C-alpha cells in the first residue's frame, strides 16, 4: 500500500483497504473537513473515499445512522456518492470517489450555479425520507446549542438570541410533511461533475423543512435578494407556504450556525473568525 509514514491510524486504513479487496492501493489524505479525517483509496479497479468521524462530531449534532440512510436514498437518485461500507456506530463510512470540481464560495454565488443548486434541492426534497427517522427541527437544535453555551459566552447576547429564536420559531408556519434534507449545503459540500451536482458530507441530513435547506444555502453564501431569486427560480414552483417559512428560517439558520461555531471552537475545531463576526452582525439586526 502506497502511504507515506506510519502510525496506528494508517494501520486502520490499511485494514479497511484490505477488507474492501484493494490491491496495493494508493492512499491520499483528503483535506477540507473540520472535524473528520478522510482518505482517498485507489487501486487499478476501485476509487473510494474513507471517512472516519472525529470523536467530537456527536457533540455538534451529527447523526451517523441518519447520515447513512439519507445518503443511500440520495445516491439512488444520483444526488450523492454510493455507499460501499458503513459502520455508523464507529463513524466509519466508505463511498465511491466523486470525480469533478468542488465548488468555491464565489461559484455558489453565481446566478447560473444558484439555479442549478436550487434544482438540485428540489430533486432532493421530492424524495421520501425513511419513515423511521425523526424529523430535524433546526430551531430546536439551535436552541440546544445556545443553552449549552451558558456560562461560556456573554449572557446578555445569549439571552437576546434565545428570545429572538423563540419568537421566530413561533412565527414559522407549520410544515405539513417533512422532506429529505441535507441541512449543510455549502460550497465545499458540492461537487460539480459538469452534467450534474453531487453533495457530500451528509452527517446532518434527515427529514426536515425544505425551507431550512434553502435558508442554509442563503446564509452560508451571504446571498443578496437577486441571488436568492436565482436560487428560488432554479428550485421552481410557486410555493407560498415555503416562502413564508423562508424568512424566519434564514435568521434561525444563522443562529444555529453561530451556536455550532461557538461549540466547535470550544472543542478545538478552528472556525473562521471573520465569518463569526458577520454572523453576529446579522443576528444583531
Describe this structure as you would to a colleague.
By secondary structure, the chain is α+β, with helices and mostly antiparallel strands. It is built from nine helices and ten strands. It has helices at residues 8-19, 64-76, 111-125, 138-148, 155-171, 210-220, 225-235, 240-266, 273-284, and strands at residues 26-30, 36-42, 47-53, 83-87, 92-96, 101-102, 179-181, 190-192, 197-199, 206-208. The strands form three sheets. The protein has a five-stranded antiparallel β-sheet with strand order 1-2-3-5-4, covered by helices on one side. A three-stranded antiparallel β-sheet has the order 6-8-9, with helices on one face. It has a two-stranded antiparallel sheet with strand order 7-10. The chain is globular. Mean pLDDT is 90; it is low at 2-8.
Amino acid at each position: 500500500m502506497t502511504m507515506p509514514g506510519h502510525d496506528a491510524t494508517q494501520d486502520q486504513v490499511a485494514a479497511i483497504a484490505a477488507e474492501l479487496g484493494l490491491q496495493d492501493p494508493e492512499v491520499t489524505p483528503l483535506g477540507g473537513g473540520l472535524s473528520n479525517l478522510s482518505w482517498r483509496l485507489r487501486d487499478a479497479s476501485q476509487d473510494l473515499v474513507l471517512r472516519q468521524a472525529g470523536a467530537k462530531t456527536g457533540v455538534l449534532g451529527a447523526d451517523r445512522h441518519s447520515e447513512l440512510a439519507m445518503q443511500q436514498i440520495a445516491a439512488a437518485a444520483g444526488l450523492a456518492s454510493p455507499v460501499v461500507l458503513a459502520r455508523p456506530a464507529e463513524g466509519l463510512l466508505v463511498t465511491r470517489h466523486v470525480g469533478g470540481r468542488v465548488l468555491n464560495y464565489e461559484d455558489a454565488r453565481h446566478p447560473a450555479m444558484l439555479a442549478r443548486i436550487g434544482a438540485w434541492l428540489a430533486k432532493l426534497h421530492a424524495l421520501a425520507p425513511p419513515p423511521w427517522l425523526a424529523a430535524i427541527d433546526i430551531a430546536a437544535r439551535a436552541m440546544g446549542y445556545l443553552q449549552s453555551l451558558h456560562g461560556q459566552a456573554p449572557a446578555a447576547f445569549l439571552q437576546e438570541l434565545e428570545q429572538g429564536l423563540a419568537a421566530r420559531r413561533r412565527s414559522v408556519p407549520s410544515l405539513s410533511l417533512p422532506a429529505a434534507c441535507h441541512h449543510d449545503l455549502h460550497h465545499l459540500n458540492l461537487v460539480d461533475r459538469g452534467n450534474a451536482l453531487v453533495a457530500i458530507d451528509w452527517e446532518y441530513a434527515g427529514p426536515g423543512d425544505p425551507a431550512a435547506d434553502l435558508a442554509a444555502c442563503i446564509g452560508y453564501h451571504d446571498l443578496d435578494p437577486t441571488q436568492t431569486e436565482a436560487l428560488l427560480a432554479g428550485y421552481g414552483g410557486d410555493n407560498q407556504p415555503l416562502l413564508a417559512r423562508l424568512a424566519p428560517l434564514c435568521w434561525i439558520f444563522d443562529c444555529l450556525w453561530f451556536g455550532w461555531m461557538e461549540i466547535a471552537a470550544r472543542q478545538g475545531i478552528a472556525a473562521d473568525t471573520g465569518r463569526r463576526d458577520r454572523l453576529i452582525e446579522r443576528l444583531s439586526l
